[in-house]
């Protein structure tokens, strides 16, 4: 009986935890249908998500492109296929590495920030105070954050793709001594628009996941300072795992 009770309690906690996300999504979608939309708050969150995340996103992208070029050269050199390095680097960054790595970086930086901010506001009763002031906290706090991360993620990924491909070019041309004109031609010869658009679609979906999970964890936080820490940890871990799962689902759907 004790084992069954433990299993039942774990299933109940799991169902309660994952029920928060569709509940929060429903609340946000209901608020989007009519004003006010607080555009100033959306722009402020866009600056926080996009501009302030540029250094970590671009630094991750450029070194990823460099490593991809080096590893591809090591593998292709055994078969005399060094000319395919540019194609592999471009396809890998556009389809997978760009959106996934930027998503993970944003989840660690922005997702944790959202969860901590909203969790602190919850445990200090600031969210309850908004209700007493006739201000809807979901419309005022959640909706701008969710929209900002959905809009800014594809823009971050576009810049990260360009910087990552540039990093691969620098290593291939200036370290591995490849012909620059051949490298550039091979970078685009085998690419299709679907390779670029699929990365943007993934970025938007990852942004939705980050915003929804982090805002829900922070908004429904409880338990004081310890609860804020647990909510922040859950937001980052669940966002990262959800990004990887969603990446597989989207890849299977788009390219099959």
Description of the structure:
The chain has 256 residues and is mainly α. It has one domain (37-251). The chain is built from nine helices and no strands. The longest helix has 39 residues, at 85-123. The termini are far apart. The model has no long low-confidence stretch (mean pLDDT 88).
In short:
This protein is mainly alpha-helical and 256 residues long. The chain is built from nine helices and no strands.
Which range best describes the helical content: under 10%, 10-25%, 25-40%, 40-55%, 55-70% or over 70%? over 70%
End-to-end gap: 47 Å
The DSSP helix count reads: 9
Question: Rg to the nearest angstrom?
Answer: 21 Å
Structural class: mainly alpha
Number of DSSP-assigned strands = 0
Instruction: Point out poorly predicted stretches.
Output: none
If you average the pLDDT, what whole number results? 88
Anisotropy-based shape: elongated
Q: Please tell me the total number of domains.
A: 1
The major pleated sheet works out as:
none
Give the SSE string. HHHHHHHHH
- Range of strand content: under 5%
């Amino acid at each position: 009986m004790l084992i069954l009770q433990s299993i039942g309690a774990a299933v109940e906690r799991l169902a309660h935890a994952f029920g928060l996300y569709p509940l929060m999504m429903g609340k946000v979608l209901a608020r989007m249908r009519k004003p006010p939309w607080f555009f100033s708050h959306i722009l402020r969150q866009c600056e926080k998500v996009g501009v302030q995340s540029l250094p970590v996103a671009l630094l991750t992208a450029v070194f990823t492109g460099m490593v991809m070029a080096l590893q591809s050269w090591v593998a292709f050199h055994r078969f005399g296929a060094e000319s395919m390095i540019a194609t592999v680097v471009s396809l890998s960054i556009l389809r997978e590495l760009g959106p996934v790595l930027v998503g993970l970086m944003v989840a660690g930086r922005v997702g944790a920030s959202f969860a901590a901010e909203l969790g602190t506001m919850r445990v200090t009763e600031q969210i309850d105070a908004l209700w007493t002031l006739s201000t809807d906290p979901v419309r005022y706090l959640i909706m701008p954050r969710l929209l900002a991360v959905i809009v800014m993620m594809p823009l971050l990924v576009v810049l990260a793709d360009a910087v990552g491909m540039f990093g691969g070019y620098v290593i291939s041309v200036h370290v591995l001594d490849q012909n620059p004109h051949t490298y550039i031609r091979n970078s685009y010869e085998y690419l299709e628009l679907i390779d670029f658009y699929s990365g943007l679609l993934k970025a938007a979906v990852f942004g939705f996941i980050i915003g929804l999970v982090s805002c829900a964890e922070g908004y429904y936080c409880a338990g004081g300072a310890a609860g804020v820490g647990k909510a922040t940890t859950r937001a980052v871990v669940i966002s990262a795992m959800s990004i990887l799962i969603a990446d597989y689902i989207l890849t299977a759907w788009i390219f099959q």
